[in-house]
Structure formats: structure tokens, C-alpha cells
Amino acid sequence: MRDQYGREINYLRISLTDRCNLRCCYCRPEIARQLAHSEILTYEEILTVCKAAAALGVQRFKVTGGEPLLRRDCVFFLHQLKLLAERGKVTLTTNGILLPAVVPELVKMGLDGINISLDTLDRQRYAQITGVDRLAEVLQAIRQACAAGIKVKLNCVPLQDMTFAELLELVAFAQNLQVPLRFIELMPLSCNNAVEGLAGSEIRSRLTAAGFTLTPDKNIYGGGPAVYYQLENRKAPIGFIEPLHGKFCACCNRIRLTATGYLKTCLYGHSGVDLRELLRSGADDTKLQQAILQAARQKPLGHDFEHAPAAFTMNEIGG
Q1: Which residues is 232 bridged to in the sheet?
Q2: If DSSP codes are grouped into helix, strand and coil, which group holds residue 174?
Q3: Which residue has the higher pLDDT, 56 or 315?
Q4: Which terminal residue of the chain, N or C, has fewer Cβ atoms less than 10 Å from its own Cβ?
Q5: Tens digits of per-residue pLDDT, 16-25?
Q6: pTM score, two decimals?
Q7: What residues contact residue 13 under an 8 Å CB cut-off, 6+ apart?
Q8: Mean pLDDT over residues 225-254, rounded?
Q9: Strand residue runs (E) in the chain
Q10: DSSP 24
Q11: What is the pLDDT, as a whole number, of residue 224?
Q12: Quick count: other Cβ atoms within 10 Å of Cβ 306?
């Protein structure tokens, strides 16, 4: 499946819910209206969309939220999606708080990887950023998932007031566990204009000034836009996802399904198609595939985050 600019679209992000057990200052700092149960796609409906997407060439499925593990029977859904994907990849993004209870089931089903959010190792800072004092559970989840053999990546959204000590602690923690650590540049949203992100170039400069040697790493660690570096004499890469200062729209390979069934072709834009309406009006597999294909072909050339913040919270569209 290709869009009008020739980009291959083979990656689908799936939001299971808009609900989350954190209130991160850069994502959903205020308590907003929660979607009604009837507004959210059923698992059967989501799997129908995934089946159609797979038939069109989608090979990677990322399950997210809100916090996906908050939704009842999330693990059952992941198992069904893994069976549907066959040789494709199914991964999960989570804040980790609810993860320890389900790690054995995720291992058993052969989940291909988990991305876990971790913005700091300082307990007070974690509570300040997320609104809850749950860092201990998250660290337990990370260690448990690594020990179980699941491929883990750590995601950090660095803020301007991150100290160098915090940065070094995160790098050391990831290196000790031998897992990739990715720094994700803050995307300007109308809900997070009170905070300022730390650019990837600043992080690299800080590390270089401290004597670290960063060597570009051409290995492939997934299907996303991260650019990786190896630190000299270290065991795991660090990655940077920079939608503003390292804009990667020209090679974007993804579309995303919101919890309400809207297929967005660009995180920032509004282009896409309402698949919930199609599903609930009795559209067959052919019509569903046609709708997905048409929407993908109209995927815009790039986002406009650098010009104006977007008027949504990340939990609304799938973080």
C-alpha cells in the first residue's frame, strides 16, 4: 500500500482506549471527558480493521492508548491480533504500571516487543511529571519484562528542566539492562504549552561535552522513525525521535486508528476516514479495504507542528 508520494504504508498504530492512569504534563495534564463505551470500537471491530490493513500490506501493529492495559481483556486482544498478524510484528506501548501482572501471558503469546515510558529515575520528578507516585511499579515492570526475555525499549520525553544527572541516570539504567533508550521530542499541543521540551541536539551535545562518543548506528531496531547512536564501550543504543528538528515525514510509513475508529493518516492532520461508521453500517471487507486504501493515498506530505500546536491530547488519538 502506497500513498500519493510513493511512501510505503506498512505500520498501523491502534489506540484501544482514551483512558490512562497517569496525567503526564505533556500529554493530558487536565482530566477531560472520557469516551462512552458505545463510542469505542469493539475488539471484533478492531480486528476486522487489522485484517483489512494486513491484506493491504500492513506488517506492523503497535497497540497503544491512553494506557492499553486499562482496557479489560487487552491481553486477549493482543493474542488475537498476534494470530491475525501471522508473520507480522505486534508490539505494545505502555506506562508499565499494570504490566507485571500480565508479563507471563505476553511471553507465552510471543509478543514482539514492549515500549515502556520512563522520563526520569527520580521519584519526586516522576510524580511531578505524571501526577502519580508509581515509579517503583514501573521499574519493577521494566526489570520483569527484561528478565522474561521480551524485547524492551524505553521511551523518554525529555523536558527542558531535565538535569544532566537525570540524563546520565537514564542512560546508565538502560545500559545496565542492555535495552534501547529513545528520547522523543516534545510535540507542541494545545494542552502542553506550559512545558518546554529538550531538543535531541541538546542531549547529544551534553553527552559529547561529558566525554561520550556517539557513533551513528545503522542497525534496525524496529519499524519506526528513531535514529540510533552507539555510545563507546556501551551495550545498547540510544535513539532520537525528533518530529520537529529531525522531521521524518518524507519516510513516514504509518497510519493510526483512534479508539473511536477514525483512521488518521497523519498524527497532526485531520485527513482520514471514519471506519466506525463503515463498520456499523455493514460494510464488507472489500469496502473497508477500499476506504483504507483511499485514505492512505491521501496521506499529506508532512505535518505542521512547527507552525502551530495541535488541538488535541495524545490520549485522544493514541500516544
Answers
A1: none
A2: helix
A3: 56
A4: N
A5: 999 999 998 8
A6: 0.93
A7: 62, 64, 254, 255, 256, 257, 318
A8: 87
A9: 11-15, 60-64, 89-94, 113-117, 152-156, 181-184, 214-217, 227-231, 238-241, 254-257, 262-264, 272-274
A10: -
A11: 83
A12: 12
